[in-house]
Design brief:
The protein is mainly α and 55 residues long. The chain has a domain of 30 residues. It has 2 helices and no strands. The chain starts with 10 loop residues before the first helix and ends in a 14-residue tail after the last helix.
């Protein structure tokens, strides 16, 4: 038996695989993923949201 924590199971990655497998692929999904990667590549933060309640 291995020591705890030495062989972590990639649960986060498996959840993403499950989500992608169970999400219908449409152009909106692909466009949003592409836009996020372009934002990251140009130095932006695709996950920087404004304050709650702001539109």
């Amino acid at each position: 038996m291995q020591e705890r924590g030495t062989d972590r199971f990639p649960v986060h990655e498996l959840v993403q695989v499950w989500q992608i497998h169970h999400t219908p692929m449409d152009l909106t999904f692909l466009a949003e993923a592409f836009a996020a990667k372009v934002c990251e590549a140009t130095g932006g933060n695709a996950y920087s949201y404004g304050p709650a309640g702001a539109s």
